[in-house]
Amino acid sequence: MKRTPTLSLAAYVASVGLLVVASPLGGVAATPQPTSTPAKTKDACSATQSKWAHLKCEQFKESAPGDEYFGRMKMSYLGIDNTYKDGAISAGVYTTDPKLISKLDFATEALQRWAAKYPNDPELARSYYLGYLVMQKVYTKPEQERTWQFMQIIVHKYPNTYFGKQVKSAMASGFTEHWFADAQACPPATAGAKPDPTATPMPATADHPAVQVMAPPCTSANP
Q1: Does one domain contain both 82 and 119?
Q2: From CA 107, how far away is CA 110, in angstroms rounded?
Q3: DSSP per residue over 160-182, as a string?
Q4: Residues 140 and 203 in one domain
Q5: What count of other Cβ atoms lies within 10 Å of the Cβ of residue 91?
Q6: pLDDT by residue (tens digit) across 117-169?
Q7: C-beta of residue 151 within 8 angstroms of C-beta of residue 170
Q8: At 57, is the secondary structure helix, strand, or coil?
Q9: What are phi and psi of 214, to 5 degrees?
């Protein structure tokens, strides 16, 4: 009787399609498994459902936290805005009140610190605009020059916003800086005279608005 040849181990392995790797110790090494590639981290804003939502998400990433404070007086962005809003009411038609000017200076310093740290914060446009509204009512040279500075920031950095369009319209109508000249002694009969609002403004130039320097109330020569 003939014996049926027995399949060798190598033939058996080949028949089932397995690859056997001999280890240096004479054993059989396991087939290495492919390593998984870690998933890439997606930008949180890329998951938004619309272009508007994506824009708001990107703006949020550039915004200052509501509980972060700036400047020597540690003012939040809401505190800056409220200082400007209250100042515009207190100023009336115009003012030179040093107490109000001091408050505005603190708000402006905080605004500058905020803008330096978060230059792309979308809320900056509103704060610059509120600053412009109150500064134009303060008839002192530094505040009038700061008004023009704020206007330039708004129209160049935020031209397509509501605030940019309002300021461009004001500039097109002709913006004039106003401040008082130094007070001069006057005769007793005219002491306390009101400022002369008819002073002829100096014309605007290519890089500066028109300026109207008004005569202040004269003061008595004797204290």
Answers
A1: yes
A2: 5
A3: TSHHHHHHHHHHHH--EEEEEPP
A4: no
A5: 22
A6: 999 999 999 999 999 999 999 999 999 999 999 999 999 999 999 999 999 99
A7: yes
A8: helix
A9: -100, 150
Q: Is the distance from CB of 70 to CB of 113 less than 8 angstroms?
A: yes
AA identity, residue 133: L
Do 169 and 181 fall into the same domain?
no
User: In this structure, what token pair is assigned to residue 29?
Assistant: 């090494």
Residue 79's SS3 state is helix
Q: What is the pTM of this model?
A: 0.65
Question: Does residue 93 sit in the same domain as residue 131?
Answer: yes
Amino acid at 50: S
Angle between helices 98-117 and 124-135 (to 10 degrees): 160
What's the total number of domains in the chain?
Answer: 2
Contact of 132 with 174, CB cutoff 8 Å: no
> C-alpha dihedral over 187, 188, 189, 190, to 10 degrees?
60
Query: Which residues share a beta bridge with 176?
Result: 210
Q: Which amino acid is at 64?
A: A
What is the DSSP code (8-state) at residue 45?
G
Pairing assessment for the beta strands 185-186 and 219-220 based on DSSP bridges? parallel
pLDDT digits (tens, 9 = 90+) for 193-211: 555 555 667 777 877 888 8
Domain assignment of residue 222, given as a range: 175-223
**Separation of first and last alpha carbons in the chain:** 145
Specify the pairing of strand 219-220 against strand 28-29: unpaired
The answer to whether residues 153 and 197 belong to one domain is no
